[in-house]
Amino acid sequence: MATKSTERIKMLTIMAMLTALAVVADMFLRVKVPPFLTYEPKDVVITIGAFIYHPLAGLAISLVVCLVEMVTISDTGIIGFLMNFLSSAMFVGVASVIYYRKKTILRAVIGLLSGSAAMIAAMLLWNYIMTPIFMGAPREVVVQMMVPLLLPFNAIKAGLNAALVLLLYKPLVTALRKSKLIPVRESHDSGNKRLNTAIVAIVSALAVATMILELLIFAKIL
Asked: Quick check: 15 and 61 in contact, CB under 8 A?
């Protein structure tokens, strides 16, 4: 029987591999969408990592990947880093929190749909706030882009990422189990109940705050 130390080493190895794959996807599978948007499938890899292990693992991978992007290929600096991390954190965090509590295909679908909705709302909000800063464009211009550009782009991005996760997760997990790199049955550590609850609370608070601010913006209260 594998010791806890061995299992931890295996987990860190797989997480490192997934982080490297996410960085490769981020750097080399990028599709630019005028005038300033970019699609890359890094969230697919990050979500698979979160589904295999834990929502916190997904957030950790996301943080590392976004930091690497900021210091290598990004030209938007800390603002771009914050927006990229928030986008990934909302999609990966919401999806994996829902899936992790009960790992079924239905929960995966619900989680991915919920993560997509949270990510779309977050990106509309933060584009409204941040895009005028790094583009130097009036906020009214950004508002005019929301429905014809930002909303469909983020919806397509989230939908494509969700579909790829559903397509790739099972075959990858099966291959890792056959290679004995992850347990045949993924266990839930009861000792981490407080951590799990904290993550749920943080992700839920971010999602609720985002939705409230979104409503305020569209109601022209801000």
From this structure: yes
